[in-house]
Amino acid sequence: MDYNQTLKEAREKFGALATQRDAIDREMEALMRIIEGAQIATRDPSYWDPDNPAWVPKKAPDSEPAGVTETIRKILRRTGQALLPTEIRDNLEAMGVEGSSPKNLLIHVHKALGRLLENGELAQSPHEGKMAYRLLHPMERQMREMDIALRFGFSEPPSRAVGATGREGVSTELPKQPKGEK
User: Whose C-alpha in 29, 86, 92, 160 is 20 to 30 A from the C-alpha of 4?
Assistant: First the structure.
């Protein structure tokens, strides 16, 4: 059995399936927006009339504000391609996320991208002389962890551990040898 060929074929198939899944996810999000819009349009007009004394504003089920990091995940998942931090900031502003200034919001974007990168959730690629970021599919993350394990000689992928900062990350350090052994 040619394991290199098997690995190549599995990665190609995985890439094709990931592309299909991304397309399906984007189509499902578009359909959800259509459904939400149609639900609003089919409501009794008095439901939305603030001049009607019986009108009580209803909180939409998804109206709980998400954090910047989670919103960035959603943007990257929706686009399915690598984005520059400024493009992510522009998407956030289009979604109604505000900072005290565009520059301040960009600082928050960079910090969130750093956390996502540290957690192994992103891939970086150069774009227009700057670094662009793409959200990794969970299977891609697992494959990267396995590659790290093979590179560093672990028999299993590195364990996920919570670092001193309290964030989950992938340990890529070699196990420490007890004193006296080399």
Answer: 160
